Amino acid sequence: MQEKHILLARPNQLLAKKMGQFLIRNHYKAQTLTKMEQLPHIKPDGLDGIVISTNAVSEVKENYASVFGLVKKYFPDVPVAFIVSSDTDTMIESIKQNLELKGQEVTLLDVTKAAAGRAGPGKYVLVIHENELGQPISDVVTSDFFN
Q1: Which end of the chain is more exposed for a tag (fewer CB within 10 A), N or C?
Q2: Inter-residue contact 65 to 102 (CB < 8 Å)
Q3: Hey, what CATH topology would domain 4-145 get?
Q4: What residue spans define the domains of the chain?
Q5: pTM, rounded to two decimals
């Protein structure tokens, strides 16, 4: 299986262990962003996905909505997933509102809806709860999502 390259665009140390095991198990090689100034220097070739943590604490000082806007500016065709720690439905609504305030309209799907094929035509942004990182359904969904 070929290794996929994932950019951790808003890393959070609390999720590092769960995320690290998830990435290894699914043959992902992670590149960590520590400052937004690094974005222009990341090569889009071979970048299979971007993961953004919604936790309040991160090495990157910008909030997740600002980070999303910047990564979509530099990598418009690369799939993006948000990792959440709070209730998924609540976070989907919060993410949607925060992105709309930044002028970004997206379709957000949790792992269950993405697995059920409810994505429909067009692109969507995946929302993964940190507790789902160890579940086989997340492995399948992310493998399809970050193809």
Answers
A1: N
A2: yes
A3: Rossmann fold (3.40.50)
A4: 4-145
A5: 0.91
